[in-house]
Amino acid sequence: MKKIKKEVLELELKAAQMRKEILEMIVSAKGTHIASSFSIVDILVFLYNKILKINPKKPNDPNRDKFVLSKGHGCAALYVVLANYGFFPKHFLKSYCSPGSILGGHPDSTRIPGIETSTGSLGHGFSVAVGFALANKINKSSSRVYCLIGDGECNEGAIWEATMVAAHHKLNNLVLILDDNKLMISGFAKDILDPLSFSDKFRAFGWNTIEINGHSFEALTNAFKKIPAKNNKPTVIIANTIKGEGVSFMENKKEWYSMLPNEQQLKEALGELNGRMKRLKAKIDK
Amino acid sequence: MRDAFIKSIYKVTKKNNEVLCMVGDIGAFLLRHYIKDFPNNFYNLGAAEANLVGVAAGLAMSGKVPFVYTITPFITSRCYEQIKVDVCYNNSNVKLVGVGSGVSYGTMGSTHHSLEDVAIMRVLPNMIIIAPSDPQEVEEAVFAAVKYQGPTYIRLTLSSFSLDYDRGKFEIGKARIVKKGIDAAIIATGDMVTIAIEAAETLKKDNINCYVVNMHTIKPIDDAIVKKLSEECKAIVSIEEHSTIGGLGSAVSSILLQHPKNKALYKIMGFNDIFCKEYSSDKLKIFEEYGLSANHLAKAVRSLYNYDKPDYKKRR
Prior knowledge:
- The structure holds 2 protein chains of 2 kinds.
- Helix content of chain A is 43%, strand content 12%.
- Chain A is an alpha/beta fold.
- The longest helix of chain A is centred in the N-terminal third of the chain and has 26 residues, at 3-28.
- Chain B is α/β, with parallel strands linked by helices.
- Chain B contains 13 helices and 12 strands.
- Chain B has helices at 2-15, 32-37, 49-60, 72-75, 80-89, 117-122, 135-147, 192-204, 223-232, 248-257, 283-289, 294-305, 312-315, and strands at residues 19-23, 42-44, 65-71, 95-99, 128-130, 152-155, 176-179, 184-188, 210-214, 217-219, 235-243, 265-271.
- The mean pLDDT of chain B is 96.
């Protein structure tokens, strides 16, 4: 098997394993946002394995790359990734959303290693990420800043304020990833506040745009090959994703924005993810 | 005070290159020397204050000391959630500077007034509030803010000449006694300190020897001085260029009510839950209209001081 192909399969396997851990963690805490976490798992797995220059043992290293999860409600996915990457012990995940835990329903930067800024209210993290990128420019640092926002989050005016500022200040050290899962709490984004074309919007705001399938590691790899861009513009990767990706009955269903599976549904969901893992392992071993 | 801030930010940036001056489309003319001499420390992020505060938080968490300067309502209520989450929840070292606080923009109307800013900032954990009373204190506040690690709000009003008294060292959270007294006390902040001095002078004629306290830090408030005054004086009046709800008066009354040795009667003076609908380039005229002149203040102290407190034992 080609090396690249194997690498992709291994990332897919990691992502499937993490989906399982996310699901189990949320269900055991009676938490929420399974589907929102599932749409970003592959992006997070890719960033933490392939892109971010960070050392979990030195989470405050001044020269680190920074990742900001602006759509803070997807933090269950980030917690699992951070734990697997060694930012904190994995057993912390068992305490998720329980008294005494540092891991709440939205991430708190003052308590969780690897969380650069507290998020949860939409439209905040992106501005802070712009601040991080601007500081790197001022300090002539080569570190980069990656920020993940949601498509629903783009309803917030502050997103477009930050978009303008990033382009005006030529923050080509900033990469925005838009998790375009097309679903919001109350339904499809196009029926609530139609975003029309994100690519057109960002291009008009002076950004480089790349549109990809946000669940394809090949597509992510190719997109990140184009970064840093040769011009002075910041880059947005518009990642077309599926809310709930990985569990067929949760995919693209607004009900699963905040629902928890019952015992039978959980069994089915875990069965699907186990099946995916089994298939991937078999392919890798071939 | 505005000019004092411009001079202070220049001085402090010269000393510490991590200091940044960030604005939301304001002050280009006044800051022209700063912009010329420190082009890499000045950021005008446009009339987009929510993002401005978020970006400042990111810069602060990267080791910068950003002073974010614009007209008070636009750097407080306009971007309040960014202040709550990005600045206070993250406990990031952002310095917010509101210019023209209270009714300083006397002709501009309520959109440009801020009679609620202290209330909303006080309630945020980690935030401290400094309201200088004169230009010298602005400089002291700016330098203290750089030394202090954490969210800071500096509330600038209008006063353009420095007060003459033995002020001692500026310390965040420690009030300054402008004038000592015996019978009564006025606790004032910002431009109201000048009004308080004038009122205390008037009260001398009534044989009321009145303290004037400059409460330049509204949070953390100097509760030791408030407690001391409440044990010594019969009457305490606080006065502020702010709503009577949630500001200096609320902070002082909370201390008084919870202090078992308090024997003082107390009155809060400020804008009484009302939008200021008077226009004048002379702020004193607005104070006059809203019962906040030196004469109004003296009258309030006098009437409180002369009030016959019912004897609780007899009544029982």
